[in-house]
Amino acid sequence: MEIEAYLDSLYGSDPDLERVLEDIRGRGMPEISVAPGYGRLLTLLVSLTRPRAVLEIGALGGYSGICLLRGMTADGTLTSLELREEYAAAARANVAAAGYGDRLESVVGDASDSLKRLAEEGRRFDFFFIDADKESYPHYLEQAIRLANPRAVIAADNTLLHGRTIDADKVGPSVLAMREFNRVIAQDARLTGVHLPSYDGLALAMVK
Ligand SMILES: C[S@@+](CC[C@H](N)C(=O)[O-])C[C@H]1O[C@@H](n2cnc3c(N)ncnc32)[C@H](O)[C@@H]1O
Which of 14, 26, 92, 143 could disulfide-link to 115, CB 3.0 to 4.6 Å? Predict the structure, then answer.
């Protein structure tokens, strides 16, 4: 934590992202946006891979959405799935305030239903950020692989569940799902995967 705080302190203020965090607090929403260092990593990865179509699962207040959109080229769009209409509305407002409102497709509802619909529509994506209900991570990963263009990148947050993932005494549904998700990232022949252990853990994979 001290190391992460030190490294985060090296970066200057970020008014757009600070406004999102303030808005989340003001609305009484959970303060569970992606960690600042991983937000910067998302921007960097998107800048490097230049995806046309990005899919985010779990919008909350738009923090990660802004990080993703920042790295994208002007013709790129972000499709952002969110269960709760009030959170999706906050994300839309914050993404618009950061100047990216016209590049956001906000989809409200259970992500499993939204992913099914996107598949039926024949949609394909170049970059995914999975950051919603943890029990569904293995399912979201399968759906992401199904919706992926070749060499698409998949990122997923909270792979360590604040230590619960590696605590043998923890056997709840989120923990079991996350262990399975992490195993697939590491071992599935369709993926080239890697796990980053900082903050609450981030997984990255490329679909071969
Ligand atoms: C950790 S927060 C997302 C944070 C966001 N990615 C960010 O970093 O700014 C998880 C979000 O997933 C949403 N969520 C939970 N279950 C969901 C589901 N079944 N379908 C879609 N969204 C869901 C929650 O409402 C919440 O907004």
Answer: 143
